[in-house]
Amino acid sequence: MAKSIVIVATLDTRGDEVRFLEEVIEKRGHTPIVIDAGVMGAPLFAGDFPRERVAEIGGKSLEELVEAAASGADRYEATRVMIEGVEKIARELLAAGKLDGIMSLGGSTGATLGASAMKALPVGVPKLIVTTFMQNAPVADADITVMQTPVDLVGLNKIVKKTLSNAAGAVMGMAEQELPQSDQKTLVGITALGVTTPAVQKVIARLEKRGYDSIVFHAKTTELDRLVKGGVIDAIVDLTSFETVPMVLYPDEFVQMLVGTPEVRRTRLDSANERGLPQIIAPGGLDMHIFPGSGIDSVPSEYQDRAWTMHGENIVLFRTSKEEMVKIALSIAERANKATGPVAIIIPLRGFSEASKKGGPLHDPEADRAFIDTLKQNLENRIKVADIDCHINDDEFADLVETTFNEMMSARR
């Protein structure tokens, strides 16, 4: 079956190269779709999405961008507008079934344009950047393949032609490759921490026996959100909702220090609510704060009177208080109440992590009870809540997760 391969480039500087790519793709029986992201200079040809259209979709006219550049404006503004236009076009083409693979070519600006558009697309869509500046390709942790060209992409000499042929072959090969039907199982996103690893492993084993695939996310749900938005994830087992602790309790500067980026998120898994995915929520890890350090003296002074323990040599765990557990419960109840799909909450009464089981350093039944009571009082009646008299890492807990999850999925068939 013919595939649609989108090419993002500036047709004033890369027009000949794009024409060559079009020919290679067409000879293979596929359809090239060209997006011209250039601003200055005259394009060799208009492309399927001319630069005027790209700029308009990005929020400004091409004339405005050209005039601004001529008057000495920062090039970044024009690049930002064209990036916005390319992103929107790529998403629309994908939604219309007209994007089976995407590639870009150019220097640092071409790599930036391509990477931005590609990051707007779901995981699994074939993505390839051909660039002369591999070290400047801003792919981060996205599933983007980068091919570095050994020479500049100027002129169709035999090295450039071979490089472009290889690139076209790579993206077409990816687009042609499809998973066997037997591998297209329901994919479940599961959240984890070291202190809930036994529970995660047991749940995965049980779900696999039921025919489900699982993918695990450690502590952070940023990537899980992206996969949910892209339609890759079919259901959520939020077994370790620890991430709620810093989101609800910490000031911005603490969050920035812990995640190492300027971003401060105060919500999590809204994507699952919006898409109506089945969700199981458990309080894994809510019984602790996690800070880097070598002992209780390493954490902020206001926390130093807490029960604490070491998790390895450089991580300090210290107990969440009764008052904090109330705030956390309110946040989780608010999130569950917003869900548009089926939600169940499973609460292990004998501890939410390895550190808080009976006899453990963070054992505090009174604080746990404050969480449970507050949560129940603030959940809508439609939300199923199940208490179970065991620890989160016990077999009985995994058994209940398995049974509850399978009931939720069966009801949707």
Account of the protein in words:
The protein has 413 residues and is of the alpha/beta class. It has two domains: 4-176, Uncharacterised protein family UPF0261, NN domain (Rossmann fold, 3-Layer(aba) Sandwich); 181-412, Uncharacterised protein family UPF0261, NC domain (Rossmann fold, 3-Layer(aba) Sandwich). The protein is built from 14 helices and 14 strands. The protein has helices at residues 15-27, 51-58, 62-70, 75-95, 108-119, 158-176, 197-209, 222-229, 244-249, 252-259, 270-275, 322-337, 365-378, 395-412; strands spanning 4-9, 31-36, 101-106, 127-131, 145-148, 187-192, 213-218, 235-238, 279-281, 288-292, 308-310, 315-319, 343-348, 384-388. It has a six-stranded parallel β-sheet with strand order 7-6-8-9-13-14, covered by helices on one side.
Overall pLDDT: 91
Largest sheet, if any?
6 strands, parallel
Under CATH, the homologous superfamily of the largest domain reads Uncharacterised protein family UPF0261, NC domain
Distance between the termini: 30 Å
- What's the CATH architecture name of the largest domain? 3-Layer(aba) Sandwich
- What coarse outline follows from CA principal-axis ratios? elongated
What is the number of domains?
2
The whole-angstrom Rg is 26 Å
Q: So what's the CATH class of the largest domain?
A: Alpha Beta
Highlighted features:
413 residues, alpha/beta, Rossmann fold, 14 helices, 14 strands, 41% helix, elongated
